[in-house]
């Protein structure tokens, strides 16, 4: 067989073990063959010259030539005009790769925590992106301060001070990759300062409990009642901080009462505690003006946390923290150390989007849409499932409805999923930790962000039939089986 000459090509990573009894040319053949089979060397890929391969592998050129000749004979490689050697197109082994997890889809989707993605203002966002790409200084595309792009922090401070009553300085804002990263940053710093325990509302968002727990903090559930968080239990809990949703508690929909707000701030002052205010959907209040942010009353004790997930789309992965100055500096340093900051183009586009009033316009357009969906949902619940008891303020994108004691919420979720209906649930007792709340029934959490008005009545008609069948059969969740993964999370941010 004639000697093979190949043109230069990208370097290869091939393992050669000189201590092995296997001849070097065999090792080189096997390494190349495995690279083709695994797909590391794609069909048609040009290989390095025999001289370059020999130098790279630390073998003689003769060994490299011999390896190429053998693989040409086997059909893994082929020679081309000019002496180049490539991977044979017919020889590439295509392994069966695991399929990426697909989002669960439902014919009827009542899952909570999801805004109407069809209503995302694409044209306005595209205009902001174009202006950003046209006019942004080149320096903004480099490595920046961990706080985030200055333009966005200025616009956020102006917007939050105007709309939410915060006392926000641009230098005290840290842009995060959604709320999830924000709460992780906070918990990480608290743990590094020696904190051991952190309080969450009970019931509350399970994702937050998990995220906080990964930092080594012990999550302490504090019950919620009609007035919101039981602030009187914080002293006994011995916690360094607490995460609250005062404007619209998740998932009960309660609003923290004025007395509890004052008591919570007093606790923070007396104990030196930190309050993390999750203001996840306060812009959507339908019966009155939203309650102002706690941060505006005590900016030295409250971290205000928000995100674009409910007001625009969770896929933007844009969140923000307004923190006391010293803590903001530490949050920014921690953020920078783990990912060097959130994407600059998205931040600049969002800054332009806010500055031009597009966020205000989007919220004004969506409030009446969501309010109508909520009204239709309440009316349909009264018609088809009168035994359910909706609770909470006229706000947000979800309603919690308590169930009669003879119905198991997890069984309903599983049976509904099998019938093509997605819905959230709340188990009887505590949703976080192990402390039960006596007398608290299970519940269903209905989101109305995605579903259209015309689908609500049909969806509840079908859900009522599912629940009636469960009652007749007395089937529990252990017989139905769990809902698909991701089928009914309480909320995701």
Q: What features would you describe in this structure?
A:
- The strands form four sheets. The protein has an eight-stranded mixed beta sheet with strand order 4-11-10-9-8-5-6-7, sandwiched between helices. Strands 12-13-16-15 form a four-stranded antiparallel beta sheet, with helices on one face.
- A hairpin with a 2-residue loop joins β6 and β7.
- The chain has three domains: 97 residues, Winged helix-like DNA-binding domain superfamily/Winged helix DNA-binding domain (Arc Repressor Mutant, subunit A); 123 residues, Aspartate Aminotransferase, domain 1, CATH 3.90.1150; 240 residues, Aspartate Aminotransferase, domain 2 (3-Layer(aba) Sandwich).
- The C terminus is likely disordered.
- The chain is an alpha/beta fold and 493 residues long.
- Helices cover 40% and strands 13% of the residues.
- It contains 15 helices and 16 strands.
- The N and C termini lie far apart (63 Å).
């Amino acid at each position: 067989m004639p000697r093979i000459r190949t043109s230069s090509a990208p370097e290869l990573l091939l393992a050669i073990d000189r201590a092995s009894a296997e001849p070097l040319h065999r090792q080189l053949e096997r390494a190349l063959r495995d690279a083709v089979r695994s797909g590391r060397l794609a069909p048609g890929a040009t290989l390095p010259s025999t001289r370059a391969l020999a130098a790279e592998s630390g073998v003689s050129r003769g060994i490299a030539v011999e390896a190429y000749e053998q693989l040409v004979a086997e059909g893994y490689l082929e020679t081309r005009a000019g002496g180049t050697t490539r991977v044979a197109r017919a020889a590439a082994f295509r392994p069966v790769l695991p399929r990426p997890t697909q989002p669960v889809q439902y014919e009827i989707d009542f899952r909570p925590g999801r805004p109407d993605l069809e209503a995302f203002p694409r044209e306005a966002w595209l205009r902001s992106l174009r202006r950003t790409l046209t006019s942004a200084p080149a320096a903004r595309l480099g490595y920046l301060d961990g706080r985030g792009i200055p333009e966005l922090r200025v616009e956020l401070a102006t917007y939050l001070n105007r709309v939410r009553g915060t006392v926000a300085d641009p230098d005290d804002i840290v842009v995060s990759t959604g709320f999830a990263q924000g709460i992780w940053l906070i918990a990480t710093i608290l743990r590094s300062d020696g904190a051991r325990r952190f309080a969450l509302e009970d019931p509350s968002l399970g994702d937050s409990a998990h995220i906080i727990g990964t930092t080594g903090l012990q999550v302490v559930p504090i019950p919620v009642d009609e007035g919101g968080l039981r602030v009187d239990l914080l002293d006994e809990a011995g916690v360094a901080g607490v995460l609250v949703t005062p404007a619209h508690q998740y998932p009960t929909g309660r609003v923290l009462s004025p007395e509890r707000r004052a008591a919570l701030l007093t606790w923070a002052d007396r104990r030196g505690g930190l309050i993390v205010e999750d203001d996840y959907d306060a812009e959507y209040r339908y019966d009155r003006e939203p309650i102002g942010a706690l941060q505006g009353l005590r900016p030295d004790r409250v971290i205000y946390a928000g995100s674009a997930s409910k007001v625009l789309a969770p896929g933007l992965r844009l969140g923000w923290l307004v923190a006391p100055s010293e803590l903001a500096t530490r949050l920014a340093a921690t953020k920078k150390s783990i990912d060097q900051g959130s994407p600059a183009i998205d931040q600049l586009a969002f800054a332009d989007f806010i500055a031009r009033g597009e966020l205000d316009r989007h919220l004004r357009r969506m409030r009446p849409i969501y309010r109508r969906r909520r009204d239709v949902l309440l009316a349909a619940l009264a018609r088809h499932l009168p035994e359910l008891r909706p609770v909470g303020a006229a706000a947000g994108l979800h309603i919690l409805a308590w169930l009669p004691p003879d119905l198991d919420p997890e069984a309903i979720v599983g049976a509904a999923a099998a019938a093509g209906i997605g819905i959230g649930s709340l188990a009887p007792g505590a949703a976080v930790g192990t402390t039960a709340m006596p007398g608290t029934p299970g519940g269903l959490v209905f989101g109305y962000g995605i579903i259209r008005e015309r689908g609500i009545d049909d969806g509840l008609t079908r859900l009522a039939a599912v629940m009636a069948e469960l009652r007749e059969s007395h089937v529990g969740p252990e017989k139905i089986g769990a809902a698909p993964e991701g089928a009914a999370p309480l909320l995701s941010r």
